[in-house]
Design brief:
Blueprint (H helix, E strand, L loop, with lengths): L11 E13 L6 H6 L7 E14 L4 E6 L5 H9 L6 E6 L3 E4 L12 H11 L4 H6 L1 H8 L14 H12 L6 E5 L7 H16 L3 E5 L3 H7 L2 E6 L2 E6 L1 H14 L17 E10 L7 E3 L3 E10 L3 E2 L2 E7 L5 E6 L9 E2 L4 E9 L5 E10 L7 E14 L14 E7 L2 E8 L1
Parallel strand pairs: 3-7, 3-8, 5-6, 6-7, 11-19
Antiparallel strand pairs: 1-2, 1-4, 8-9, 10-12, 12-17, 13-16, 14-15, 14-18, 18-19, 20-21
Amino acid sequence: MVAANPKAADAVAVNDLAKCFTVPRERSHTLKERVLHPRGRRHADTLDALSGVTFGVPAGEFCGIVGRNGSGKSTLLKCLAGIYRADRGTIHVRGRLSTFIELGVGFNPDLAARDNIIANGILLGLTPAEARRRVDAVIEFAELEEFADLKLKNYSSGMHVRLAFSVMIQVEADVLLIDEVLAVGDASFQQKCFDVFNDLRDRGKTILLVTHDMGSVERFCHRAILLERGELVAAGDPHEVATRYLDLNFKREQAAVGVPQPRGGTGEARAQEIWVEDAAGERKMALAQGDPCVVRVRVRVQQPIEDPSFAIAFVNDQHQNAFVAATALERERTGRFAAGEDVIFSVAFDNRLGPGRYQLSFQMARRGGGDDVIDRWERVTSVVVVASRAAGGLVDLPCDMTIERVAGDRPRVAETLS
């Protein structure tokens, strides 16, 4: 377990926080069941949602809280907000606290948007006069001027979340607890949300953001913490924590996607396994774009072979070979291998593949290639490439970009982008 030790000056200080829930195995759904079986044995399990979590968030820091479903993220925020009472540990918050845990809590579908804005603003801590003054600003930000007098039950889901988010950002607070509210509305409204969070960060607000979006973590957060099964397992640089989160997320996923194709070739040698490693030599199911990696294939030789060729392919969801590495393109001689010998073929490269899932295929052939295939093993395993941004191409190559203003016949560089 990792402990990000809090300091006295921290805006949020959590020490040895624990919270458990009792989960019944059988439930009495009706009053009749309870009356007929008043002394019936009720079995229950204990779920440790949080186990000794300790961390601190300095004033003015944007801290991301990440973890897989069921890791305790939302429970942590609800304990910080006072919705849940902790079973053990202490929580100290300096300054006014505002919680953005569920969008639209407190909205009445039978009231118009204006009335809901006032009521919800009061619930979030505004005075009635402040809530009324901000009605027009909320409606304008939510881009709902034409629907201000429409009852919420007639709103679409997108209109509903836009209104809820717009109300929430009106609250002036020192510490904000935010749970998964960045992906609201269409693309243009999402950009407005991003602008709001950039502004909050620039104004020195202390923000704790729970999210599954690693791009948002790297884009907004100064620091991040990772929860797993109720324990804090990593804390620090957002990129490093995001990478660790992705490792956990894909750790239990089966290596193969679909059913591997039948083996082809003469069988004089057979690949035993294929895997991907990061720069530290750890096997990975997910790779961060731009990081160095190595693909390895362990081959067992059944009969003596001289100078075979080896090839590995990354195949995308459209069944395109996004990347192929083959010894036949580099050298004619690869060596002489005896029966019973194990060989490891490795390909090291900087991962510039676009985000997405790739299936790995392997081929080994006699010198000269052609149809003289020794082993062909397709769709053996898969790896997911993740990135905080996506350019949309098969690969994302490093490049330099320039913008030029043309004056007469001579272009002049106005700006260089890298």
